[in-house]
Amino acid sequence: MKLFLDILLVITSLLLIALVLLHRGKGGGLSSLFGGGVQSSLSGSTVVEKNLDRLTVFTALIWLISIVGIGLEIKFA
């Protein structure tokens, strides 16, 4: 079980990094300092952005569950 949780943690960590990097900057943050604020944003969110948000949240939940599972296994093993 520990090996499965470790592999799941590594896979979800890499996937979460990739999904966060795929998001478009919303402006006002550090991205606007480096020229990100120059681009005009389209009005509203597209279906792709909404699905990317859902996939990111789902991956983050799996990541969190695997972290808690590893912690519980370390505590009680």
From TrEMBL:
PANTHER family: PROTEIN-EXPORT MEMBRANE PROTEIN SECG
Swiss-Prot/TrEMBL keywords: Cell membrane, Membrane, Protein transport, Translocation, Transmembrane, Transmembrane helix, Transport
Any Pfam family matching the protein: SecG
Protein location: Cell membrane
Gene name of the encoded protein: secG
Top-level taxonomy: Bacteria, Bacillati, Actinomycetota, Actinomycetes, Mycobacteriales
Task of the protein: Involved in protein export. Participates in an early event of protein translocation.
GO cellular component, one term: plasma membrane
Protein source organism: Rhodococcus qingshengii
Protein name in UniProt: Protein-export membrane protein SecG
Alphabetized GO MF terms: protein-transporting ATPase activity
Signal sequence annotation: none
Superkingdom, natural source: Bacteria
GO BP terms, alphabetized: intracellular protein transmembrane transport; protein secretion; protein transport by the Sec complex
Membrane-spanning intervals of the chain: 55-74
